[in-house]
Amino acid sequence: MAHGQTITNAYVRPVVFISTLECNTFLPLRAGPKDDGDSIPFYLLHVNGYHWTLATVGAIDGITLIPPPILAPRSSSKDAKCWLGFISKGLSLCKQGLK
To answer: Domain of life here (predicted)?
Structure first.
């Protein structure tokens, strides 16, 4: 997960890491979400303790689960802060599942 912020900034999409130890979300810092569908998160699943693979995550009522993000101390722009609103439904779904 050490490269999470680099990956998310390069693709300007959230990156969700899923493993048996922890699940984390990284949000882009330089630009906000787009309305054209290119802002859908990447889900990377940790397999066999050594490899990361691209995972397909199903949606519930059109909403995909998103674990709480690892937030940078300072966001680079106002656009970057829009990501929290963009993923809010997925965060709520995650919190419901943890109860």
So the answer is: Eukaryota
How far is residue 44 CA from its own chain's centroid?
10
Six-digit token string for 85 = 């609103």
User: Residue 36 — φ and ψ, nearest 5°?
Assistant: -90, 10
Tokens of 3: 């490269």
| 8-35 pLDDT per residue, tens | 989 999 999 999 888 999 998 888 888 7
**Contact between residue 48 and residue 40 where contact means Cβ atoms under 8 Å apart:** no
* Residue 53 bridge partners (DSSP): 45
Provide the token pair at 82. Answer: 């829009």
SS3 content of the chain, % helix, strand, coil (to 5): 30, 20, 50
| Domain definitions of the chain by residue range | 4-98
pTM here? Answer: 0.82
| Beta bridge partners of residue 17, listed in sequence order | 24, 44
